[in-house]
Automatic annotation (TrEMBL):
Top-rank taxon: Bacteria
Protein name as annotated: Glycosyltransferase involved in cell wall biosynthesis
Amino acid sequence: MPRDLVRRAARRLRRVVVGTPPVPAPLPILGYVVAGADGAHPASAHVRVVRRTEHLAASGTAEVRQVDPVAFVDGTDTTPYAAVLVQRDILPRDAVQPFLAAAAARGVRVVGEVDDDFFTESGRQRLARAEYDPDRLASIDALVRGADTVVVSTPELADVVRPVARDVTVVPNALDPGLWTPGATDDDDERPEGEHRVLYMGTLTHAADLELLRDVFTDLTATDGTPIRLEVIGVTDEGGADWFRRIEVPDGHYPAFSRWLVAHRERWRAGVAPLRDEEFNRAKSDLKFLEYTALGLPAVVSDRPSYAVARTRGAVAVPDDVVAWRDAVQAAVERGTADERAVRWVTGERTIGRDDDVWSRVLLG
């Protein structure tokens, strides 16, 4: 019998004995609605949504797509989403109810995501000072009340959201290893000489917290007399003061910003995260501790609920006392490197792909 006939007969026999390989089931499709497009998004969108969805897609767990809310509502987008994640105030106030109605009509679960206290009166007042207008706050309120479930970043924030939401799940922040794994450092030609530098970074909602550090860093020196200078990224619109220096980083969205920090991490000896004892701050996450640790910096933080777990993992939590803060910053600068317990914990438990992925379970079941 010719060889090609033998091979065909063998293939037919294998199909009979083994059976035709099953066709893989299609992956569930997760949609998400965030500000920005084509990878250029606000930092909160990257941290809470975009980086996680990209890892979800890379793992083969789901197909992910950024959703155009207009196309979703008018029916132009007919994608059979398993769920759509909507981040805080991305939908205009008047668009929230039509979006929720369209999702309900199609049997699509809507998951809201919030990472700040947008609900208490004191929280709203603080956000208003950071240029959150009433329509933005009303949009978030409508989304949280109408979503099938809401994902938040801390247990304290869950307590705030629970009275107005149908269901709440806590998903702690985690870092993307693709952004925060240290590599080679870049030369920093603008690095001042003859001083130690301490980093404080954050959004404009932290402007009031910055004032807690005024007396801490005024005339602060190391034990050998070397000046200790606070450097601030974001946080305030002020250009600087005699007790802190404002640092302007190159333009770019969150991934570029993170990689810039990692590449310039030798500029600083420690990182600080002050929080006033205010209702708004009690719902804040420990993200700064994670990021400082990823930069290899010891973290000095306010002794607040936000850092209760971090305190057991190597963060230095300090009460509202100037002397205690000055001593803690001096000690951190002298040490100059992150606590080994902090590094192990952040790497092993607070990194996307290694953390307990409650996030994908709440979205995809």
